[in-house]
Every structure is written in structure tokens, then in C-alpha cells.
């Protein structure tokens, strides 16, 4: 790519949305091989992570690879089916339509849905899968359910939906046809957020696929789109982003489009211009999403102030470099991980990258800490200062008394 113009390389990157199949800027990660291998052998999988990590792009490529290997695939985005205003009948019927359309069996699956009207909506959906899809298709059928966190906004419990997915796995023992049916669940959630009953969750029979930030080796493919000074520019971008997929692609895209970003110092100026300005936390799509997820961490308006204070206090400990273990049962840690502001390293929580460390600093924490918590901290500080002062005064009095006696 040496000597190419800025215009010649600017279109190389995709800084938002799903990366197209033909894009040269797609970065292969260990998750690509892990997900394909697991689904190819019939294992249920789930990919739960923060936003803008490349879940949809991973899904598109895995589907293409599975189809090339002879499998049939269906992709369902739950946000398109509806949320609080849909009934269970409408929601499950929407699943039937989406899966049926993808498999070329929309009419047949809808007819089965109508014929089984005596069953519950959940039973009718899984009946259509078994009695139509698996009876018609002889190859493996892999269903990708994206945005599964959307089930939290439904007016009814989605527990039985996840229980139904688990039952498809359990029935493999009695009905060999189910061995050809596999699910992959994707979303911004932790398993405990979606289904509380450990005896019915599909997550304890599924394989978790971890979608991590780009490593230096993986991100090396992006250098081809950067033109002059590409290796130094890419290294400096990774210095700031720590391989965060969206931030890395976005900064690389801007650097390529300008053409005058050819050194580490140029990258530093670009980062400061785009991300460290006063309004960047509101105008940059990634920074705004991270901040909003932390500050809107509770759906209960009566608890949001206290919960926000607890989340920000935990984040402040991490920001200060204190040891905070990655505890899957800690709901505060889950908020930070799903916001994307922290990463897990050696079972400890660390600030995700230097950009977040700078943007979401201690000043930002203080600005957004609920007033009651700030007052509590001030009282604690004054109480501590008073106690220290009294102890110091007592010590001085003892020293003075000893001096007089001497």
C-alpha cells in the first residue's frame, strides 16, 4: 500500500455497524475459530459482551462459513420483533416468521403455528422447529439469536423461551433429529440478567465464546489501509485503544482519510481532537454509550442514585489501580463490564484503555456522583480528619506533659 493516496485507502475501514463480508479490514480473532468449530460440531454457544465489540460481524462471517460447509442458518434480531407492547403470541409468531423466512419455510412454519393453536406460544414455536424445519431439512440447522438482552424489556417473562432452547439440547438423548439443531445466543448481558433459575438456563449447557479486544498480531492486518507510516501509526492507535474494535477501526479510518497522520505524534493530536474535547462524551457514539450505560445502571428510579453511587465507587477503585477481582456474581462489576469501560486481565478488572482512563477520569466520577453520596463522603472525610486531629492533639499533650516532668 506504500504510495497510495489517502482516498485510495480511506474506504478500507468500517468504523460503524457490521463489517461486510468482502471488507479487507475485518480482523480475525481467536473467537472466529472457536465459534465456528463449536457450532460445526453441534455445541450450543453464547457470546455475551459489551456493545461495539464486533458480535454482529462475527455472526455474519460464521454464518457464511457454516453455509459453505453445508449447514442451514437463520438469524433473528430480537429488537425487530418488538418489546413491551407485544403479546406472547405476537412475539413467538414473530420468531416463527423470522426463522421460517431464513430457512425458506415461512409458509409451512406459519401453517404449523396455526394448526397447533391449543398449545402455548412457546410450545408452538418449538413445535414448528421440530415438526417442520427438522423434518424438511436434512442438514444441520444453526439459529443465531441476536440482541437477547431485548427480552428484559418484554411485558412477560422470557424464562420459558430460554428453557425451551435448553430442552432442545436435552431432547437429543431421545430424539436424534435434535442433534442437528443448534443455537447461538448473542447480546449485551450476563446470564443471570436473563434467566434466574439455574435449572432451566441454556447458559450452563452452552459454550461461552469470549470476544476480546484485538491483539497486536490480529490488528496487524489493519496496517494495509493506513498508507505512509502505517506501522508507527497503527502501533500508536493501539497504544490508545488497547485494541478496542470500534475505537481502533474508527481512529484508523479517520487517520487514513486525512492522509497527514503519519507518525505517533499525529495520532496523539488526532485522539485529543476527536475524543478529549469537552463535548466528546456526548457526541462520540462510543463514549456516549459507555457513559450512559454506567449512569443509567438501574431500571428502578428509586434505586438509581444509590446504585449509581456504588457503581461509580467501584469504578473509582479500579481507576486508582486498586485490586478488584472479576466476580461473576457481582452486579456492580457486571455493569462496568457490559458498559465496556473495564476489561478482565488475570482475573482482575482493569480500565479498558487509555482513552477511557482519560475521558472517564476522577473528575467525571465526581461530576456524576449523586449528591447524597458526595455528602456522605465529605462527612466521612471530616470525621476522619477530626479523629486524626484529636489523636494528634492527644499525642502532643502527652509529649508536652513528659517534657514538663523531665
Beginning-to-end CA distance, first to last residue: 85 Å
Q: What portion of residues belong to β-strands?
A: 5-15%
Task: Give the proportion of residues in helices.
Answer: 40-55%
| Overall average residue pLDDT | 90
Structure, described:
The chain is of the alpha/beta class and 406 residues long. The protein is 54% helix and 8% strand. The chain has helices at 6-10, 30-40, 55-68, 88-103, 106-115, 121-136, 159-170, 191-194, 216-219, 230-241, 245-258, 264-275, 280-283, 285-295, 304-319, 331-339, 354-359, 362-368, 371-405; strands spanning 45-48, 72-77, 141-146, 181-187, 207-208, 342-345, 348-351. A five-stranded parallel β-sheet has the order 2-3-4-1-5, sandwiched between helices. Strands 6-7 form a two-stranded antiparallel ribbon. A hairpin with a 2-residue loop joins strand 6 and strand 7. The longest helix has 35 residues, at 371-405. The protein is globular. It starts with 5 loop residues before the first helix and ends with a helix.
Key traits:
single chain; about 400 residues; alpha/beta; five-stranded parallel β-sheet; two-stranded antiparallel sheet; about 55% helix; globular
How do you describe this structure in short?
The protein has 406 residues and is an alpha/beta fold. It is 54% helix and 8% strand.
Helix and strand arrangement:
Layout: H1 6-10, H2 30-40, E1 45-48, H3 55-68, E2 72-77, H4 88-103, H5 106-115, H6 121-136, E3 141-146, H7 159-170, E4 181-187, H8 191-194, E5 207-208, H9 216-219, H10 230-241, H11 245-258, H12 264-275, H13 280-283, H14 285-295, H15 304-319, H16 331-339, E6 342-345, E7 348-351, H17 354-359, H18 362-368, H19 371-405
Parallel strand pairs: 1-4, 1-5, 2-3, 3-4
Antiparallel strand pairs: 6-7
Helix pairs in contact: 2-3, 4-5, 4-6, 5-6, 10-11, 10-12, 14-16, 15-16
